[in-house]
Task: inverse folding
Protein backbone atom coordinates (compact mmCIF):
# COMPACT_ATOMS: atom_id res chain seq x y z
CA UNK A 1 0.00 0.00 0.00
CA UNK A 2 1.39 3.40 -1.02
CA UNK A 3 1.73 5.92 1.80
CA UNK A 4 1.16 9.66 1.60
CA UNK A 5 4.48 11.47 1.22
CA UNK A 6 5.23 13.89 4.07
CA UNK A 7 8.33 16.07 3.83
CA UNK A 8 9.77 17.90 6.82
CA UNK A 9 11.79 21.09 6.66
CA UNK A 10 12.26 24.52 8.11
CA UNK A 11 10.90 26.58 5.20
CA UNK A 12 7.73 26.23 3.17
CA UNK A 13 8.01 27.83 -0.25
CA UNK A 14 5.05 29.06 -2.25
CA UNK A 15 4.82 29.57 -5.97
CA UNK A 16 4.95 33.19 -7.08
CA UNK A 17 1.56 34.62 -7.95
CA UNK A 18 1.73 35.60 -11.60
CA UNK A 19 -0.93 37.40 -13.56
CA UNK A 20 -3.49 34.97 -14.93
CA UNK A 21 -3.06 33.93 -18.52
CA UNK A 22 -5.90 33.97 -21.02
CA UNK A 23 -6.25 30.19 -20.65
CA UNK A 24 -6.46 30.40 -16.85
CA UNK A 25 -9.17 33.06 -16.93
CA UNK A 26 -11.39 30.90 -19.11
CA UNK A 27 -10.59 27.40 -17.82
CA UNK A 28 -13.97 27.06 -16.09
CA UNK A 29 -15.76 28.26 -19.23
CA UNK A 30 -14.11 25.89 -21.69
CA UNK A 31 -12.90 22.45 -20.53
CA UNK A 32 -10.35 22.37 -23.34
CA UNK A 33 -8.24 24.65 -21.15
CA UNK A 34 -7.97 22.00 -18.41
CA UNK A 35 -4.58 21.00 -19.79
CA UNK A 36 -3.06 24.32 -18.70
CA UNK A 37 -0.70 24.57 -15.76
CA UNK A 38 -3.22 26.45 -13.61
CA UNK A 39 -2.86 26.02 -9.85
CA UNK A 40 -6.17 25.61 -8.03
CA UNK A 41 -6.85 25.71 -4.31
CA UNK A 42 -8.88 22.90 -2.75
CA UNK A 43 -11.26 23.75 0.06
CA UNK A 44 -9.77 23.17 3.50
CA UNK A 45 -10.68 23.35 7.17
CA UNK A 46 -8.23 23.83 10.01
CA UNK A 47 -9.13 23.49 13.68
CA UNK A 48 -7.40 22.62 16.91
CA UNK A 49 -7.92 20.72 20.11
CA UNK A 50 -5.79 21.00 23.25
CA UNK A 51 -3.15 18.63 21.86
CA UNK A 52 -3.53 18.71 18.08
CA UNK A 53 -4.12 20.82 15.00
CA UNK A 54 -6.27 19.08 12.40
CA UNK A 55 -6.34 20.03 8.72
CA UNK A 56 -8.96 18.59 6.38
CA UNK A 57 -8.81 19.02 2.61
CA UNK A 58 -11.41 18.14 0.01
CA UNK A 59 -9.44 16.73 -2.94
CA UNK A 60 -11.73 14.21 -4.61
CA UNK A 61 -10.32 12.59 -7.73
CA UNK A 62 -6.70 12.93 -6.63
CA UNK A 63 -4.65 9.75 -6.30
CA UNK A 64 -2.81 9.24 -3.01
CA UNK A 65 0.55 9.04 -4.80
CA UNK A 66 -0.12 12.50 -6.33
CA UNK A 67 -0.30 14.23 -2.91
CA UNK A 68 2.72 15.89 -1.29
CA UNK A 69 2.61 17.26 2.26
CA UNK A 70 5.42 19.50 3.48
CA UNK A 71 5.58 20.27 7.20
CA UNK A 72 7.61 22.78 9.19
CA UNK A 73 7.05 23.79 12.80
CA UNK A 74 5.03 26.84 11.65
CA UNK A 75 3.31 25.89 8.37
CA UNK A 76 1.97 23.05 6.23
CA UNK A 77 1.96 22.95 2.44
CA UNK A 78 -0.35 20.51 0.65
CA UNK A 79 0.23 20.16 -3.09
CA UNK A 80 -0.32 17.68 -5.86
CA UNK A 81 -2.13 17.07 -9.11
CA UNK A 82 -5.64 16.07 -10.14
CA UNK A 83 -5.30 14.52 -13.57
CA UNK A 84 -7.66 15.68 -16.30
CA UNK A 85 -10.19 13.11 -17.42
CA UNK A 86 -10.26 12.20 -21.09
CA UNK A 87 -12.42 14.63 -23.00
CA UNK A 88 -15.06 13.12 -25.22
CA UNK A 89 -14.38 14.47 -28.71
CA UNK A 90 -18.04 14.38 -29.78
CA UNK A 91 -19.48 15.81 -26.55
CA UNK A 92 -20.72 19.35 -26.18
CA UNK A 93 -19.98 20.61 -22.68
CA UNK A 94 -22.66 22.81 -21.15
CA UNK A 95 -20.89 23.30 -17.81
CA UNK A 96 -17.31 22.61 -16.75
CA UNK A 97 -16.57 23.59 -13.14
CA UNK A 98 -14.32 20.78 -11.91
CA UNK A 99 -10.75 21.99 -11.77
CA UNK A 100 -7.86 19.82 -12.88
CA UNK A 101 -4.12 20.20 -12.79
CA UNK A 102 -1.79 21.24 -10.02
CA UNK A 103 -3.08 22.38 -6.64
CA UNK A 104 -1.33 24.00 -3.73
CA UNK A 105 -2.27 25.42 -0.32
CA UNK A 106 0.00 26.76 2.39
CA UNK A 107 -1.52 27.03 5.85
CA UNK A 108 0.24 28.93 8.62
CA UNK A 109 -0.37 27.23 11.92
CA UNK A 110 -1.82 28.86 15.07
CA UNK A 111 0.64 26.94 17.29
CA UNK A 112 4.11 25.49 16.89
CA UNK A 113 3.84 21.79 16.17
CA UNK A 114 5.91 18.74 16.98
CA UNK A 115 6.90 17.34 13.58
CA UNK A 116 7.45 13.95 15.22
CA UNK A 117 3.71 13.78 15.97
CA UNK A 118 2.45 14.17 12.41
CA UNK A 119 0.23 11.74 10.53
CA UNK A 120 -2.08 11.84 7.54
CA UNK A 121 -5.01 9.83 6.24
CA UNK A 122 -6.70 9.96 2.83
CA UNK A 123 -10.13 8.42 2.38
CA UNK A 124 -13.13 9.07 0.12
CA UNK A 125 -11.59 12.22 -1.36
CA UNK A 126 -10.77 13.81 1.99
CA UNK A 127 -7.24 14.30 3.27
CA UNK A 128 -6.82 14.67 7.02
CA UNK A 129 -3.53 15.80 8.55
CA UNK A 130 -3.12 15.56 12.31
CA UNK A 131 -0.31 17.61 13.85
CA UNK A 132 0.69 17.29 17.52
CA UNK A 133 1.28 20.60 19.29
CA UNK A 134 4.64 21.37 20.83
CA UNK A 135 4.46 22.96 24.27
CA UNK A 136 7.10 24.56 26.39
CA UNK A 137 7.11 23.51 30.05
CA UNK A 138 5.99 27.01 31.05
CA UNK A 139 3.15 27.14 28.52
CA UNK A 140 -0.09 27.66 30.46
CA UNK A 141 -2.19 26.13 27.65
CA UNK A 142 -0.81 22.77 28.69
CA UNK A 143 -2.26 23.03 32.20
CA UNK A 144 -5.70 21.71 33.08
CA UNK A 145 -7.71 24.08 35.25
CA UNK A 146 -10.94 22.98 36.91
CA UNK A 147 -13.47 25.56 38.09
CA UNK A 148 -16.09 24.84 40.75
Result:
Amino acid sequence: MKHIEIRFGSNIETRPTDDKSFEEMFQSVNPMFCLSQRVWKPQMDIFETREEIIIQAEIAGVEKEDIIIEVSTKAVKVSGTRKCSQLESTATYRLAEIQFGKFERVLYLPSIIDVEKTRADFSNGFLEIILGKLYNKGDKRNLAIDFC
Q: What stands out?
A: The chain has one domain: 5-12+26-86+98-135. Confidence is low (pLDDT under 50) at residues 22-36, 140-148. Strands lie at 5-8, 39-40, 44-48, 52-58, 67-71, 75-82, 101-108, 113-123, 126-133. The first strand starts at residue 5 and ends at 8.
